[in-house]
Amino acid sequence: MVKRKTTTRRSANRRKETRRSFSMPVIHWRQVALAVLLPVALVAAAVAGLIGRGQGLTPSGDDALAGVLLVTHARGGEPALAAAVRAQLARTTAISAALLDAAAQGYASRIVVDLVDAAVADRHEVVASLRPRVLGIGHTSGHDLLTGVQAALEALAAPVLRHRILINYRAEAEGVSVEKIIDRLLETVKGIGPAVKAK
C-alpha cells in the first residue's frame, strides 16, 4: 500500500513537471500591440520580443504576430512592421517563418482571412461564428493568432478614437482623461481572444 502511494505521488509529480515544461508565461495583449503602436525605430525591438517565443512548430509569439500582420495588411499595411518581422525570420522555425511571410502579404487559411476581414469591418456576428473554428487551429495557434488580431484592432482603434473624443471641464475636474474613456470603451467591447502565452 505504501509503495502504491509513492508510485502515485511520483507519477503525479511527473505530470506536474511535464505540465510545467509545456506551460509558458503569459504575454499581455498590450505587449503584442506595441508592434503596431511604437515608432518605426522601435518596432524591431517589439518584434524581437515576440518572434520565435513559445514552443512548437509555430511558436505563440509568431502566431500572435501573424494576427497583427493580417490586421495591419487588411487596414492598408504597416511596412515597418512587415520589414521588421521579415528581418528576424531566422529566429524562428522554417514553417513559422513561411506563415509570417505569408501573413505580411495578407495570406492565411480561408477561415482566418474571413475572420480578420469580418473583425476589421466590425461584423461582430460573423466574428462570433468563426471564432470557435479558428480557436480549433493547432494546439494553441488559433488562440494566439486571435490574441494578435485583438491586440492589433485595439491598438489601431485607440488613435482613431482619441481624435474623436472631447472631454468637458467637468470630466477634466474629475480626472477623466481621453485615454481612460478609450480604455473603458475597449473593455466594454467583447474581445476576440485572450492573452498570448509565450516562452
Description of the molecule:
The chain is mainly α. The protein has a domain at about 25-155. Helices cover about 70% and strands about 0% of the residues. The chain has helices at about 1-20, 30-35, 40-50, 60-75, 80-85, 95-105, 110-120, 125-135, 140-160, 170-175, 180-190, and strands spanning about 25, 195. A two-stranded antiparallel ribbon has the order 1-2. Helix 2 (about 30-35) packs across helix 9 and helix 4 (about 60-75) packs across helix 7 (about 110-120). The longest helix has 22 residues, at about 140-160. Mean pLDDT is about 75; it is low at about 1-10, about 10-25 and about 195-199.
Q: First CA to last CA: what distance?
A: 40 Å
Number of strands: 2
Strand order of the largest sheet: 1-2
What is the string of SSEs from the N terminus onward? HEHHHHHHHHHHE
Radius of gyration: 20 Å
How many strands, what sense, and barrel or not for the largest sheet? 2 strands, antiparallel
Shape, please? globular
Low-confidence stretches: 1-8, 11-27, 193-199
Structural class: mainly alpha
Average pLDDT:
76
Helical fraction equals 55-70%
Beta content: under 5%
Instruction: Please give the count of helices.
Output: 11
